[in-house]
Structure formats: structure tokens, C-alpha cells
Design goal:
By secondary structure, this protein is α/β, with parallel strands linked by helices. It is built from twelve helices and 16 strands.
Amino acid sequence: MQGPSPVSSDAPASGNRPNIVFINTDDLDTASMSFMPKVKSLLTDQGTSFSNFFLNVSLCCPSRTTFLRGQYAHNTQVLTNGGTNGGYARVHALGLEQSTVATWLQAAGYHTGQMGKYLNGYRKDDTTVPPGWNEWYGSDDGYPEFNYRLNENGKIVQYGNKPEDYLTDVLAGKAADFVTRAASGTQPFFLYIATFAPHNPATPAPRYANAFPDAKAPRSPSYNEADVRDKPQWVQGLPLLDEKRQAADDELFRKRIQTLQSVDDLVERVVTTLQTAGALENTYIVFSSDNGFHLGQHREVAGKQAPYEEDIRVPLIVRGPGVAAGRAVDALVGNVDYAPTFAAWAGAAVPDFVDGRSFAPLLANGAGPAWRTAYLIEHYTEGGRTARHPGKTTHAAKMKTGKGGIPEFHGMRTQQYVYIEYATNERELYDLTKDPDELQNSAGTASPMLLGQLSTRLADLVKGAGVPLRTVEDQPVPALVS
């Protein structure tokens, strides 16, 4: 198949506007970053890491929709991966693709490209290219690393099971080709690379299939938690992990970090290609994940969607012009902030519906601007209610559970704690400065006045949207008193 032509030379000149490359992994937990030495040397050591980067909904389609739109899930109304309240079909039906970070940057004169995973439920035989993308290499739904199809600019291309067909490597090659061509043109470019790795079934490239033979899933203090009487009923009902289950955790962990070696290679190839093309110094490279991942913490079998740190906190690393090297920022940043940040870098207009804010000012040395004090986290049941009713402090008591038996919840993450309200009227409250592993739920011992203040603060976050929501995020939060 003939590849795309070079970027148009009659497009608006880029001036000093930067290029943007966003590398978005799938289900990458923070702990696994220690197995990615190339990311460390090429991005972490050369850029800024965000130690408090959180996800509004730790689930693929809602998270990715939030990235595209800069809205919390209760405002996109894309709450799950399918059913009546989630997935690609709902995104498409709601017309959300008509205004995304891709359309904003394209309108601002950027040459845009997407490759890899798009949204859950994206049809395998669909030759449609969503609005905003000049180049499109959308993959099958279902997480295949071999024997998959790509929609390559409107044409379905079949890939096989040879080593060179390994999807992460194919994406690396296409990214290198895109960067080489785009850097030779006069437009700035925006490239979105979305890998399946390390998502289940976590298929490694053949060259890494035997790597890390002795690696085991981390045994943090919350792994296979012995006493869960303080936890909500959905956790209390989980059995202790037996030896067979723990062995399965270890095997999955090895496969996950094996798949990440190819992502490490992809990052290296992108950086090397940018450098060869003379574009590295004027390109922001953003590396992150759409979800976190738990593997045995609090007795949970492998998965996500829980309100605990392993699921809601993911890596965020940024390298680029003016970004301080080797620096860490602890401001509360989240996936709702991607779109407005990219737009700020590009000089693109941002619609009023956007809930997030640009974290660009946090990247330079110095204290940075005043910032949010609380970040909203949510979880919904596929096909269930579309949103929590604004102003209510609790859900109906009816148990509404999704995969893993987790009831619907809303919560907020602050610098000090996480506070959760479930559809079952249960609550969780953890002081993370003293209990980082979330072993002791203090909701049962906290004062009613404090719980009332937290619930009111959470309700204000849930019913907010756009600029008013950003104002609510900045308000002081009640202090925990031990």
C-alpha cells in the first residue's frame, strides 16, 4: 500500500509552535515503570514527572474519551466500555468526535495522526476515519498483538503472526515514518500513539518472551490483605489469595513487564527519529497510561476500576521545550488536563465545555500557579444509570456492581487523602500521609461533621462542569484531624 504523502508545504507555517507526541499505554501501573530503563533515561531523566497524576475513571473508553474531550466522565456521559452508557458507539452517537483535541489542533494548523487503540467497540471493519485526524491507523478492538487488522487511512490492512507483525513494533515503525515525513513539512504535528501493552492477555514480542524469569508481582503491604473488616462489603467478600492465585499473579506480572520492553523500544525509536529529523528540541513527548492496574492488592484479582491508588494513579512524564529535566511535580493533575494542555502548547482554542486545565505552567522551574485541591474519581456499571444526580450526597442504596463486584462510586483524591461514597451508602476514607497502602478505612471513626463536609465537597465536584467546576476544584478541602 502506498503510504501517505509528505505534509503539505502550503499549510500555515509552524513558527515556534511545538510538535506533540503522546504515547498512551494501556493498564500501566506505576510500579512497573522500574522495568522500563529507556523511558527513564530518555524521558524521566530528561523531563518532568508528575507524582500525583490521577484518572477520573480507571477504565479504557471513559478514560480515553476524557483525554479527547477534556471532560470528566459524568459530563461526557461515556461511563463504561459498552452497553447503553459507554463504548465507541455511544461516543459516536453523542457526536463527541466532532470536537476533540484532534479537531482543535487540526483547526489550528497541526498535521495530526493517530495509531493503535482508539475506543473500545471501534468496529473491526469500519473504514471511517474520525474527524480531526489527517492520518489514521486504528486497530482492531480486542487486544491482539498478532493477526489483527489496521484501518490505514480508510483501507483495512491485515497483519499476520510473524515477528515483524508484532503490533507495538508496527506502531513504532509507523510512528518513525510519520515523524520523518511530518518533520520535513512546514506544519507542526500532533501524533497520538496508543499501545495495547501491557493489557491482558499481555502477549510479549518473541524476543522478550523469556525475559525476567524470576520476576514476581510486588508484595506490597496491601497485597492479599489479611484483615479487611474495615473495607466495604465488596472487598470483605473477596477470599484470601491462595498459592495458585498468587502464582497466576506472578505469571501475569512477568508477561506484563515483558510486553513493556517493546514499549521501551518504541519510545527509544520515537526519540531517535525526532533527533535525526532535527525535531527533538521542539517536540513535547508525553508518556502515560489510560488506566492503572491492581494485582493482588486488597485481595483483588487482576484488574482495575477500584478507587485505590494502584488503579487511579498512573505515570505521567513530559519531555520538551522549556521542561525542567529530572524534576518531579506533586500537583494534582489528571487525564482531564491532557486536551487543554495540548491545546495550550498548540495555541488552539478550547471550547467552554472543557473541565480540565493546562498543566503547562507546572513544567517550568518554580512554584507554578495556584492549583486544584481535589480531583474527582468515578466508577459506573455498564448499562446502569448515566450519572449521579447532582446535589445528592449518596447513591440509592441498591447495590449496582460491575466487573469485580465493585459498586458504583464517586470520590475525590486530595494531596492528603482519598474519600469514596458507594452506591451502597458505604464510605471509605484514607489518610495517605499516614496510611499510603490504604490498610485502615477511617470513615467509621471520623467525625460526622467531617464526613458531612467531605460529602458536600464531593457533591459540588460531581455536579460541576467547565469553568465553574475548575473553581470548585480550587476550594479548600476539610482537614483531617487524627
